[in-house]
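Reading a protein record of the kind used here takes only a little practice. The record below shows the convention in full.

——
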Amino acid sequence: MSANPELHIWLQPVKGEPLTLRTGDFPTLDSAVAALNEAFDESRTLRFELTAPDDAENGFALVNFAHVAAVKVWPGAGKGTDDGQYL
């Protein structure tokens, strides 16, 4: 298991329903915001390793930021979707 904090990433696609991912891919919240901003600005695809409460292998998500309208990220220990940073 990674020593990185678990972060929640909410994605609103241009079309379709929002999706929330849990991942430990980033060492800090600030590094996640920087990477997500860059992907959002450059319309790049990012790969996220997904996490779940039982720590089972849960797979990966590939997100093409060319098709994302909004992003929000917050720490797993946060109080919920009202606490976080929108990009």
